[in-house]
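New to this. Please check this protein:
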Amino acid sequence: MPNPIQSAAFFQSGLINHNDEQKSIVMVGGTNCKSTIVFDSKTRSWSKKADLPFVIYGGATLPYKDSFIIIGGYQYKNSAGLEKSILYYNPLLDKWEVLEEEMRSARVYFTAFYVPNDYC
């Protein structure tokens, strides 16, 4: 297994659902860390993927399209502070994108969940 994260405190995690037989568990970020590592359920192995654009921890993850997003958190981009941005991991391109949308206010150490449109 690759050395996943120098400091695993407050890392974010997500799930990529490739199909019924293959899923990937993703661990990303943490204090002083931009690393992304993925566990592939089919090969039962870990691999290192693209780094985050900046160090972030304490954010929440939600399913999004074919992957997941990280919302909020605490970041060290240019100066330390709470984050309003939304980061999307594209598994096909192995690339992180900062989405244009932002949260109305910055948050850290919170819980978020997805409610499907047809649920309400």
